[in-house]
Amino acid sequence: MATTVKSGTIQKSNRLPAMLFSASILDSKKDIFGIYTFFGKENKADWMKVFEDLINRGLKKVLIIVSDDFPGIIDAVKIAYPYADLKFAFVHLQRNVKRHMTKEDSSKFNKELDKIRLSSSDVDEAVSGFNQLCNEYLPKYPRFLKGLLEKAEFYFAHINYPEEIRKHIYTTEAVESINSIIEKIGMKSGGYFQSTEILEINIYFQRENFKRGKWKNGVPLIRHYTYEILQLFNLRYELDTQNS
């Protein structure tokens, strides 16, 4: 599985480095697969460059990509990894709800979101509950909620996976600890990194620290369900082989 996250600014410009984070299916160990610089807002062309690089380096089959709702990423994933699930971060969804709704409405809405996430037996049930919830508030927040309704399926793709591992793939929170560390380093350097190279060096050292520490033994729950995950992977890409 993989997830994407934005990091801090470089030289106070509009260049935003994007970091791709991945946990291997077979050994459940986390790693950083690449660092890519976007100019301005992300778009489909930028994401295609990222995915083409990863494919050229051997990452040709992906089961699930967990990401923020970046511009262009839906179309790019469909082209680069047509058999992969794309999952938008749930925590970021709830933050956006707080940003666009009143305090009272956002509190009620997010509580219902958690109920849907935790109680739904499959994606269709979750999307149905989500649509019903959004429609209740649609008259008050039409523009915001119409945008969510169009992408409902992407917020619940993790429900396709064993219940016990969903907490590891329902949001990008796992990578935000790294992002937070990098941002703190940038702040100590005056609020930004002097160059892309300096940023990459800092990320490299943090990656090595994590690999010797928190990431050394992998994620026990994911490792425990390796067989089930591998079955999902083989089933999905067996279809790919048959159609090729």
TrEMBL record:
Keyword DNA-binding listed: yes
Gene Ontology MF terms: DNA binding; transposase activity
One BP term from GO: DNA transposition
Name this polypeptide is given: Mutator family transposase
Transmembrane segments: none
Function in brief: Required for the transposition of the insertion element.
Homology family: Belongs to the transposase mutator family.
UniProtKB keywords: DNA recombination, DNA-binding, Transposable element, Transposition
Annotated source species: Caldicellulosiruptor saccharolyticus (strain ATCC 43494 / DSM 8903 / Tp8T 6331)
PANTHER family to which the protein is assigned, alphabetical: TRANSPOSASE FOR INSERTION SEQUENCE ELEMENT IS1081
